[in-house]
């Protein structure tokens, strides 16, 4: 379960943390934290089967890691809802 309006609050308090990113961007960070509910939801839209969803999810994570290049940690948060 997410925290309602947390991103909006965080963006208002720390606007310097938000950077537009494209596939052509390269951003080096120490840690990348992913909310896997958002990742799976994004990938589910184009998937017609469970297998396609799994492949699309891994491809999406790989693309994010290629763009962001975390130096220390990739943290993937998954909940059971």
Describe the structure.
The protein is of the alpha+beta class. The chain has helices at 6-13, 36-44, 50-68, and strands spanning 29-35, 70-77. The protein has one domain (4-77). It is 44% helix and 19% strand. The chain has a two-stranded parallel sheet with strand order 1-2. Helix 2 crosses helix 3. The radius of gyration is 14 Å and the shape is globular.
At a glance:
The protein is α+β, with helices and mostly antiparallel strands.
Strand content: 15-25%
| Overall domain count | 1
Poorly predicted residue ranges: none
- Average pLDDT score: 88
Counted beta strands: 2
Alpha carbon gap, first and last residue: 7 Å
Domain Xrn1 N-terminal: 1-79
Protein name: 5'3' exoribonuclease 2, putative
InterPro entries: 5_3_exoribonuclease, Xrn1_N
GO molecular function, one term: RNA binding
């Amino acid at each position: 379960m997410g925290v309602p309006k947390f991103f909006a609050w965080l963006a208002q308090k720390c606007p310097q943390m938000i950077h537009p990113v494209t596939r052509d961007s390269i951003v080096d960070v120490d840690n990348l934290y992913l909310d896997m509910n958002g990742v799976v939801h994004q990938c589910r839209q184009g998937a017609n089967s469970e297998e396609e969803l799994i492949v699309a999810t891994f491809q999406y994570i790989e693309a994010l890691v290629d763009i962001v290049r975390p130096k220390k940690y990739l943290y993937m948060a998954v909940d059971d809802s």
